[in-house]
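1st attempt posting a full record on here, be nice pls
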Amino acid sequence: MSDSENPRGAPRRWRGQEPDDRRAARRAALIEAGLQIMGTEGTAATTMRATCRQASLTERYFYESFDNREALLVALLDHVVLGARDTLLGALETAPDDPGRLVRHVVKAFTGYIAEDRRRGRIMFVESQSVPELAQRGEQLVAEFTTPMAAALKMLGADGAPRDAVNTQLNAIALFGAIAFLYQRWLTGSPKISQKRIVEHIALTIEAHVPVNSTP
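the predicted structure (as tokens):
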């Protein structure tokens, strides 16, 4: 492209890429760098400078994508948690009708998402509580899991007994807390617990919550 074809001051293509594509690629590189640091070394190590070094980008490009370190941390948590939510929803769409098989199908898919990249689990279940800004965002993201959990519990509890919305919501919250701690222990605990064992244990934990009913 010649100067006459490009307005003065307008961003230009570079190596066949549009300016927006380059910005998106730099942001993706920073996200991947942040995931590597936060998912292996922890939140405290996930600084702006460390992330730039890991991504081989300058500070200028960091601030092109994020206002500050806090914005990066929240973006990393969102990236992992929303990916987990999409995995959960996708598993629910393809789950078998049999209740026991349904539970294990969904739990297996969700556990697989974590096992595929254990950085995800550390960020969701360990680092998300490490600093106030992440804990606050984590509370907002809980609904991304409790909503499909509530829908699944309502379906599993189709035994004719009346259950109000509060009961379903409380069971979903209780399950979320229990499952989060189980995954946390699986990722950080000793001795090593097999993936098959954690899937079955969480499936049994979900099934045990189904009969809980405080509906007046």
